[in-house]
Write a structure and sequence with these properties.
23% strand, alpha/beta, 109 residues
């Protein structure tokens, strides 16, 4: 067993821009358990419209809110950078329109 993931079950990183407590991320994390070991890392609050931004001039803080679920005081991209491992990534399940771009199909990779 490695620190994250295992030799038999791949790591699946789940994130969003609506925040770690948004209802959509719960549904995505539950569905992703069929694909592998799930780790959730998402902003501590709604960060719609800034999901590709990264924080450069301040330290980031991550807090484990429950086992395997992490809240970061930054953007979704900051969360992915904190995890910094090879993983499948699922994101984009949220209520309402995407504020950053015109409505389109969400990427689940």
């Amino acid at each position: 067993m490695t620190a994250l993931g295992s030799e038999t079950r791949p790591l699946v990183l789940v994130t969003n821009d609506d925040g770690v407590h948004a209802p959509g991320i719960e549904a995505l994390a539950e569905a992703a358990t069929q694909l592998g070991e799930v780790v959730v890392i998402a902003p501590d609050r709604n960060q719609s419209g800034v999901s590709h931004a990264i924080s450069l001039h301040r330290p980031l803080r991550a807090l484990e809110v429950r086992p395997g679920w992490w809240s970061v005081d930054g953007t979704p991209a900051d969360g992915a950078r904190i995890v910094h491992v090879e993983a499948h990534v699922g994101s984009g399940v949220h209520a309402g329109e995407d504020q950053a771009r015109p409505p389109r199909q969400k990427l689940v990779g």
